[in-house]
Design brief:
about 20% helix, alpha+beta, six-stranded mixed β-sheet, 2 helices, three-stranded antiparallel β-sheet
């Protein structure tokens, strides 16, 4: 499973070996300035766009690793079986969203940290 870390400047999603082989990327990095929103999803698969193309590996409601796109936008996804996860909205970035399958024990601390970062950026404006 991918390791997700926010180091204060960037959201870093470091992929494990099987994910790297499917996606052909070692790490997906989103600069702090591009994080626009974050929300918790009880079932992350409900957030996947309809009628998508996938560059990576995808089997509906089983696994989705890589870029999912349709005519309305594209998302970077690291999804496993149905369950909780985070939807991270991006601004001024080639991707519109990052969708991550995360157990609640990992999702809620990251959610709180990202909400804090978003609130700070709004206060700074």
């Amino acid at each position: 499973m991918a390791h997700v870390n926010f180091d204060g400047l960037n959201l870093r999603i470091t992929l494990d070996r099987p994910e790297r082989r499917a996606v052909h990327v070692r790490e997906f990095v989103v600069p702090r300035a591009h994080i626009a929103s974050v929300r918790h999803a009880p079932d992350i698969w409900d957030e996947v766009r309809h009628d998508i193309g996938v560059m990576g590996l995808g089997f509906p409601r089983i696994i989705l690793w890589g870029t999912a796109w349709n005519r309305w936008g594209k998302d970077f996804c690291i999804l496993h079986k149905p369950g909780p996860g985070l939807v991270i909205g991006l601004a001024d970035h080639p991707y519109e969203r990052v969708l991550l399958s995360l157990p609640d024990s990992q999702a809620w601390p990251l959610f709180a940290r990202l909400r804090e970062i978003i609130a700070e950026s709004h206060r700074a404006r």
